[in-house]
Design a protein that fits this description.
- With 235 residues, the protein is of the alpha/beta class.
- It has a single domain (3-228), classed as NAD(P)-binding Rossmann-like Domain (Rossmann fold), CATH 3.40.50.
- Helix content is 45%, strand content 16%.
- The protein is built from seven helices and seven strands, in the order E-H-E-H-E-H-E-H-E-H-E-H-H-E.
- The chain has helices spanning 16-27, 39-49, 61-75, 98-126, 147-167, 186-189, 204-216, and strands at 7-11, 31-36, 52-55, 80-83, 129-134, 172-179, 225-228.
- The chain has a seven-stranded parallel sheet, sandwiched between helices.
- Strand 2 (31-36), helix 2 (39-49) and strand 3 (52-55) form a beta-alpha-beta unit.
- The longest helix is centred in the middle third of the chain and has 29 residues, at 98-126.
- Keywords: Oxidoreductase.
- It comes from Pseudarcicella hirudinis.
- InterPro entries: NAD(P)-bd_dom_sf (IPR036291), Sc_DH/Rdtase_CS (IPR020904), SDR_fam (IPR002347).
């Protein structure tokens, strides 16, 4: 697609991968809306980017429906959704908190589904659209302490494949992006110890570059799934 014609909704767009993807898309001439739960953080990010801020929690169906309505009212249309809103919860199996696990599912799985559902309804009606789900290498292989988070990302991969099978006949490209470790606030927000910046490891810039490259391909084709690793991480 031509990025100058892109009208994009990015969930979880006030920081990290979502923020950087919005920045790069806007630089390429796209119109971008970002959503987030923290109003102060969202407002500041939108002002810095020149994006449309939408205060919404993707785990709440009413918020998701209102978010789509706001995008359509403001842009008149939209043709790309980047399902990026998610967070992490890590603990040993014997110590997992069922309530925290359920909350994670509500955002990472049900939230992604509701955003995909409402976006797909619009895309099917116009017979065109692009859905980019931001997953993780944690959706390809489990690891110690990763039961909850890996479960949500394995689920997202399965949903992506199901949506793709349903929506290709409507000229809707459904794509999955699997970043490995990216230096954002993700780990800190999940309660993990903060790490010093490492120039040999990935940053949000690389993931945003991939997303934009996938979108820029002519609509006759699409990349179904792509994984990003650091070339030679040290430490």
């Amino acid at each position: 697609m031509k990025l100058q014609e892109a009208k994009v909704l990015i969930t979880g767009g006030s920081s990290g991968i979502g923020y950087e993807t919005a920045r790069q898309l806007i630089t390429h001439g796209a119109k971008v809306a970002i959503c987030g739960r923290n109003l102060e953080k969202l407002t500041r990010a939108a002002a810095e980017l020149g994006a449309l801020p939408i205060h919404a929690d993707v785990s709440k169906e009413a918020d998701v429906k209102g978010m789509i309505e706001t995008v359509l009212e403001t842009f008149g249309d939209f043709n790309v959704v980047i399902n990026n809103a998610a967070y992490g919860y890590f603990n040993a199996l014997t110590e997992l908190d069922a309530h925290k696990f359920q909350e994670l599912i509500q955002t990472n799985i049900l939230g992604a589904m509701m955003v995909g559902k409402e976006s797909a309804r619009h895309f099917v009606a116009r017979n065109y659209g692009n859905i980019v789900n931001i997953s993780s290498t944690a959706g390809n292989a489990g690891f110690a302490m990763g039961t909850a988070y890996c479960a949500t990302k394995f689920a997202l991969k399965g949903m992506t494949e199901s949506w793709r099978a349903e929506l290709r006949k409507h000229n809707i490209r459904v794509m999955l992006v699997n970043p490995s470790e990216v230096q954002t606030n993700f780990g800190h927000n999940a309660g993990r110890e903060s790490k010093a910046f490492n120039p040999s490891k990935l940053e949000s810039e690389e993931i945003a570059h991939l997303i934009i490259s996938m979108l820029e391909m002519r609509d006759v084709g699409f990349v179904t799934e792509a994984t990003v690793f650091a070339t030679n991480p040290q430490g």
